[in-house]
Amino acid sequence: MEKSKVRKMLKNYLQIGEMKIIWTAFAIDNLKDIFDYYSTKANRNLAHKIRKQILKSTDQLKENPESGQIEFNLDKLKQNHRYLVRETTN
Fold this sequence. Notes:
Elements: H1 3-10, E1 15-16, E2 19-20, H2 25-41, H3 44-56, H4 59-63, E3 69-70, E4 82-83
Antiparallel strand pairs: 1-2, 3-4
Helix pairs in contact: 2-3
């Protein structure tokens, strides 16, 4: 899947209420790599399912904005940056 298509798809996930979700280029590239890997090693349906699980995990921040881990590398900005790490299951 092309990066431009991934970015368009993520557009709906970027603004959730007052919490702004920012997908870094690194995260987008990883999401694309995960999708491509499962498309090749398993099938596209599973790849779509896993990608959807990852994207839906951002809903956790909507419900519980402080549930993500604090991003210490951005702590000096004093904007309470957080991140999520998710393990997906088939």
